[in-house]
Batch of 2 targets.
Target 1
Amino acid sequence: MPSPSELLADIRRVGRDRERGGYSRHVFERCELELREWFVEQAARRGLEVLPDGNGNIWAWWPAPGDGAVATGSHLDSVPGGGEFDGPLGVVSALCAVDRLRAEGFRPRRPLALVVFAEEEGGRFGVPCLGSGLATGTVAPERALALRDESGTSLAEAMRAAGVDPERAGPDRTNLPRVARFVELHVEQGRGLAHRQRPLGVASTILAHGRWRFRFTGQGNHAGATPLDDRRDPMLPASLLVSEARRTAARYDDARATVGRIRPVPSGTNVIAASVDLWLDARAHSDADTRGMVEELRHRAEALAAEEGCAVRLSEESYSDTVSFDGPLRDELTGMLAAPELPTGAGHDAGVLAARIPTGMLFVRNPTGVSHAPEEHAEPADCDAGAEALATVLRRWSR
Ligand code: GLV
Ligand code: MN
Ligand code: MN
Ligand code: MN
């Protein structure tokens, strides 16, 4: 029976990013497809029945006669240069939990399902939790299929190339309706458990969060031949907005605003850009605070653009309101596992499912507190404790 760390060692072979450090595994690209194949093979080895849905999510079923299935899973895609655990830990822990139950001869009364969701990070098509969003009907298929990656490939094209029929994209009428409870195990993306000196936690809430694109447009021109007072340089308002984002977020209660991605076009050292796209990731405890920050930044962006003779357009790329995980389930999980509750600022497929299905989340201690970066970590013993806890939950809920 392999440990979570042993299964993670399999996954580590795939998608190492030598340039950025960490791992880059984008949905429906070679590395992510390789990991999907790995998962399908692992599921088949355990006698699970693999059933892909129409959205690129993969379900693996342990059948049982009863209704009200119990599902668990996470994702195999990553952010650019991401850590080893965000996503894969939930997938390998699910496999390990099944191993534990099989080893003790457990026979579930309710079906159990393991699931791998597609494009959780939004690292390729810009919208996070796309697979779970499509499956739950939170994201419209027409909109999703038209999304394009940096190279101009649409989601529909990427799906087709990966052998997933985009015509079938949309609400999942096969797998999800069977699920009565969902639980996702995830590496913690902060130091909450490390501070408490506890290996495991239970998620209480997720911050409201979204992504917005500011497109500044000016006049592309020659870096040497254009006097300073004759420029309309969109890089100027864009760069000033980066510090405005930090200042604005600091005025709200425990809010976050990040610019982690910026794209000047055409992007040449001796070229004044013609346009600059800047992506804002904003998160706060309430919808009002999150939207309030973005609104303030829109006004600032307009003023900064005008000062430089530029224009700016804002578009919302994704949004998810505050999630408060199911109260009775939280109580049950904290009691069952003697684990503390903690909130998170990170988005998860479990947050999307929580709107439809009673859902809980388990966190495994991350001693560095770092995530979305190569320094993300979880000790093997804590990963074992996580898989054991997940087995406990699946056993209890599927009885
Ligand atoms: C996904 O991990 C997110 O919260 O951005
Ligand atoms: Mn992530
Ligand atoms: Mn994740
Ligand atoms: Mn996430």
Target 2
Amino acid sequence: MKSSEQLFKRAQELIPGGVNSPVRAFRSVGGAPFFTQSAKGAHLTTADGAELIDFVCTWGPAIHGHNDPDIRAAIATALENGTSFGTPNPYEVTMAELLVDIVPSVEKVRMCNSGTEATMSAIRLARGYTGRSKIIKFAGCYHGHVDSLLVKAGSGALTLGNPDSAGIPASFAAETIVLDYNDPEAVQACFAQQGDEIAAIIVEPYPANCGLILPDDGYLELLRELCTSNGSVLIFDEVMTGFRLALGGVQERIGITPDLTALGKIIGGGLPVGAFGGKAEIMDHLAPLGPVYQAGTLSGNPLAMAAGIAALQKLKDSNPYPLFETMGAQIREALLATAKEKGLALQVPQVGSMFGLFFSEAPVRNYQDATSSQTQHFNTLFKYALDHGVYLPPSAYETCFICTAHNGTDVEQAVEVLVAGIRSI
Ligand code: PMP
């Protein structure tokens, strides 16, 4: 078997940066990435034979842990009948029924193949529906690598220092208004000046691509009110938070209903899937019913649908959300207590199975606060954790994920390592 070092050397000759998605290259934390040979439950086994407790969980989808037996069985059953048909298949109807049942805003839904496709299509639909061009996004929110959304973007774009990507025409970016998250005056002023030009607000309701940021009281309610009163479409990007912060996502958790919702990650059970859905009146503007074109050769793929249906059904049956709250709080409290004892400024925003680590004096409310945090402390902690068998996301601007396969021993071991890592800073 080839080691990670050998594989990465070869990969760099063949693949730009040696990776198929930039954050995987470990550029900001330093060092070379490991290659994963296999994964089971909450653990990764690297090509070098190391076993790691995983808090990345394939960037969110593995809410039941890796290689879940029920999801594997569902894929195996679907595989008996073929891999792709290019016609409607029964799984798509079951998936749509589940999504309409679970996600409060979704009356109709269209499947696609990634979170990027979901947000791109939701934006096009909002523009087609309103006949307007401008959209509002928030600094530090990441909605996939859609041209008009790679403006002050989070995630890998921010990690690698290019939140405004090259290759995006200024005329495209000009249609995107970027505001600070948690700044009510900014969004009020924007609507007062050009409310009749704004097709949509797209927002990660709990931004999780700039570290994890929580909304101030009343902020998301304000976005809802402004969209309603100005005839703009409110799009929640719940690619990350959907089925994770509650079965029905943030919208269920806080009781605010957007007009459209972008979904991804968990609904594919680890296979490539996205979806967008919302009010039937808006969704019916999509082709073949309406003038907004959107399509996909592999959209509604039977294997991906079977995996996603199994993942969602298991969440419905098991209701892991109270346990996530307990596990998340256990990790948060241990890390905060250690930082306090050491006199180190640390914030650990945490909601259920998601938590972030900001080495900052005050709670992080926006992009500016996040990018002012001591990222070198995070990098030190990342390296310490990896050397001691715990895999955190390889960037201070990402969010850690807990899955149902993290058992008490995993959490205790990981806390022990992270506590020692904080002491080592
Ligand atoms: N929206 C959000 C909130 C995301 O976190 C991501 C990916 N991390 C995307 C959209 C894009 O999804 P994908 O990588 O599947 O294209």
